[in-house]
Fold these 2 entries.
Entry 1:
Amino acid sequence: MSSMEHVAPPQPGEVGAFETTATERVASVDDLASLDALVAELTGKRSPFALWKRSLGGLAHGDRRAIGQELNEALARVEALVESRRALLAAAAREVLVVADRLDLTDVVATPGAGHLHLVTQVREELEDVFVGMGYEIADGPEAETEWYNFTALNVPRDHPARSMQDSFYLATGDRESYLLRTQTSPVQVRLLERGTLPLYAIAPGRVYRRDTADARHLPVFHQIEGIVVDRDVTFGDLAGTVETFVTAIFGTGIATRLRPAYFPFTEPSAEFEITCTICTGSGCRTCGQTGWIELGGCGLIHPAVLEASGVDPERWSGFAFGFGIDRLAIMRHEIDDIRSFVENDVRFLTQF
Ligand code: DAH
């Protein structure tokens, strides 16, 4: 049929016949893309319906009303049919996806026998190996901490925003001392200093908690690794050399390190350490905000107030500390674009590492 024929109004019975064909064709279409194409053909701008409607203007008033109404009703029935067909096909397409993704955990043949360590654990163990190789001990601390260890002994001011209920998970223990889920691994520094065994070379990896909404770059529960060194005459140069050593051990020699002035209450002077962006290797991209550098963590020379709070004489001892996110480091090394993948436990993700 050429479109010219339809500029004429429909002949008696023609709308009905077209509706019958349309109904059959809609019912026999079996995928969404074909349905879309068919809808365009049946009801679109160049469809018989559209052309017939255009012809109405040339009709006498009575005919125009009657034929117009006939067209509208037929069109509405065809459209209703299309929508129910669309719902059916969409449900079928979803079902195909669900079946394709199904993993039968009771099928011991199809599921892999042995698992392996999570990427974050693998990276933590690599970091531990690097530091043990440099003579550090591996330390541990509680995840439910007191405000004293998490903030006060670390020289964090009383009114610091990090202390607020909005940023930290406080625990309703009923004790006079406030407890919270530690927001950083830095409180382990204080616990180590309190032991009074010096010199001290230690790292403390572990879980930390913040009241953050999960997104591509944040999780409310994540992992940090803290480092602390206290000895005679420790300098900023020792700190810079240490940072450089473990960055090279983890990322290889192609990745450079730099320190930038920053502020942390527990160190003075303080710095943020950055590494060459692993995505663009320094040329600038979206991930690094076109700077070519990515922040990995914080560090500095331990503030005398922190040493004093733990009973260490700052006149006799000095030290440095650093802390950074293990998950963050893993993301950068493996170019993972969404940190939430670490907690989704999708085997297709986990088995890549
Ligand atoms: N605790 C800091 C944080 O969570 C990181 C940090 C910065 C740790 C400087 C340090 C340090 O030991 O010296 O953001």
Entry 2:
Amino acid sequence: MFGIIKNKSTYTTKVKRVLILSGAGISAESGISTFREADGLWENHRIKDVCTAGCLDTNKDATHAFYNARRKDIADKKPNYAHQLIVELKQKYPENIAVLTQNVDDLFEKAGMNSDEIVHLHGFLKELTCRDCEEVFDAGYQAQDKFAKSCPTCSGELRPNIVFFGEVAPMYAHLTKELQECDLVVVIGTSGNVLDVTYFAQFVKESILNNLEPSNAIDDSYFSKVYYAKATEVIAEIAEYIEEFIEN
Ligand code: NAD
């Protein structure tokens, strides 16, 4: 007559999931140039010359020189307050927060994040990979040739472990999984030209966007909260919101 009365222990509280997705803008205040903004150039190079599938065959020396220079350039760069607060949040709420970045720099790691706490969707500058056996090597900040002339394992040809336009991005599997599970997506410092962050905002219950200025590739009306400001100026407010979201 009263139906089934469930024991309290059969109810489980769903862990709230937050996806923090960053792009080149979060590292801009640390002195690393962004990508597409005004002129579509990355450090004065056209993307199609150094960051597109086939570059390693048609423009090999210049492509290697470009990534050698990027690797050297990040050696002395320091994480900023935005990287630091995100690392603190991840360490405080390891089960709730996923940190995914389009960045290939190591500023989250320099701020104290372990390599298994962050997903680099587009690769990692300090790594080289073999075009034949696909083993990945940590080259640090060295030029590729300084690290090795060929793959230490199979003598195959080494290349930067960076996903070029037109290449498969294996780490996107993590992005799909996190988007399916997350309740709040926080997007910081991306123009949305590579990843369709407007779609992510439509897909997820709540969403936050932080960029320096509006982007033609993002419809910000889909975001619950929008900050057009430097990441270091608004990250404390965003972090507070994330904490409240998780706790309540
Ligand atoms: P993007 O360069 O296309 O856009 C940068 C965005 O950051 C812009 O929307 C801009 O308004 C915003 N921005 C600039 N300064 C900011 C600040 N101080 N605070 C907050 N936002 C700020 O960046 P993207 O969308 O990440 O570009 C895609 C590709 O660029 C990625 O695949 C990435 O691999 C590559 N990239 C990486 C780095 C890096 O690792 N640091 C640097 C350059 C390019």
